[in-house]
Amino acid sequence: MCVGPEGALVQKLNRLSARAVATAIGPALLADGGGLYLRVGATGAKSWVFIANQKNRATGKTKRTEIGLGSLTSVSLAEARDTAAKARAIVAAGRSPLAARAKSQTSVPTFGEMADRFIAAMAKSWKNEKHRAQWQMTLAEHAKPLRALPVNEITVEDVLAVLKQHWEQRPETAARLRGRIERVLNAAKAQGYRDGENPAAWRGHLENLLPRCTKLSRGHHPALPFSDVPEFMGALRQRHGLAALAVEFTVLTAGRSGEVRESRWSEIDVASKVWTIPAERMKAECEHRVPLTERVLAILATVEPLRRDDRLVFPGTKRGAPLSDMTLSAVLRRMKIDRGRASVHGFRSSFRDWASATTSFPSEVVEMALAHTIKSKVEAAYRRGDLLERRRELMEAWAKFCEPSATGNVVPMRRSKPSAG
């Protein structure tokens, strides 16, 4: 971009075609001319931005001004060019287009208002209502000190004051909170409410002010040693509530607790002994088939009296809602299993350790049983099937291993309608 002696923009206009805009891939910053750019993110998200270098007549210093004009989905190429033309006229007059925009707006939103707008705008792209609720809770409770502040006045000190409350004691919460604050402030900048660096940015910014979170708990749930699982099963089967059956179902299928809690009868094929979890409920967003062992089928037969059409396999007390994560965790707590020793999700690690240490099943079979994403694009391209029958053998071996000792204190599963507790 060329800048004249008075900061006027000297550049060929309308350089981008509609096709170039539609097919652009990122990350990239594509010039249309006259200070108008199309910013393309690494994920393919596209937005318009106006950039000008203005010379201060009093000091002689040049300042870069960047204004977000909106996303491509909400602002067309023609509309972006019209807005950029107005901004160029303001620059030519020696005024700040950012200040002019702020003056034309009735008020700058608070962080709380901006956060609520962001959540409403992004909700459709999120996998489920739970994700939206997590965002709302994080930005309403953990970021509460920021909510009353105008977004253009939030400083690094304000962000640090919020993060330091959680940084050492709850690093995963703090890391998630920082990222969400950054997203909201980026949205505020894109809409012209802020200018300059994002005070919540990590790379090259907060990483110089906060120690790196080295003990994130994500992916490191406390796991019972696999050698203790049969004894655990013996104790678990002495509890006859629906939650206890859901925990056993989770252990035997090596599933994630959320996948089990939200399972539907329409996903269960008893004849084929397969549970098919749709892509929208999977972490990797790919359909996943789970082979069902005889013990798992017995659990399904036990909970079937609670069946309401094709709805939840493990319904909670509130109609239409599944059992909660806390309800499953409470089973372990009532069994006097310390939180630091084991968790419901941690049985996936118990399964993984057992398979590695005691069986000859290939790693790829075990990873498929856990529905882990294949990191290698080459391997993913060549792996066509889901190895269902091999995984069936694996899960049968796991179920056999999990059976309590014949001498253990095992209570037979009841066939009567189970309670919800």
Description:
With 421 residues, the chain is an alpha+beta fold. It contains 16 helices and 9 strands. It has helices at residues 18-23, 77-92, 97-104, 111-122, 129-142, 156-163, 171-190, 229-236, 242-253, 257-261, 294-303, 325-334, 347-358, 363-369, 377-382, 388-402, and strands at residues 2-3, 9-10, 28-33, 36-40, 46-55, 62-71, 268-269, 274-277, 288-291. Strands 3-4-5-6 form a 4-stranded antiparallel sheet, covered by helices on one side. The protein has a 3-stranded antiparallel sheet with strand order 7-8-9. A hairpin with a 5-residue loop joins strand 4 and strand 5. Helix 5 (129-142) packs across helix 7. The longest helix is centred in the middle third of the chain and has 20 residues, at 171-190. The radius of gyration is 28 Å and the shape is elongated.
In short:
The protein is of the alpha+beta class and 421 residues long.
Biggest β-sheet: strands ordered side by side in the sheet? 3-4-5-6
Annotation field: number of helices: 16
Q: Which class best fits the helix and strand makeup? A: alpha+beta
> Proportion of β residues?
5-15%
The succession of helices and strands, N to C, reads EEHEEEEHHHHHHHHHEEEHHHHHH
- Give a short account of the largest sheet: 4 strands, antiparallel
Overall number of strands: 9
Shape: elongated
Low-confidence stretches: 1-10, 215-219, 378-382, 406-417
Q: Ends: how far apart? A: 67 Å
Helix content: 40-55%
Mean pLDDT: 82
Radius of gyration, taken over Cα atoms and rounded to an integer in Å: 28 Å
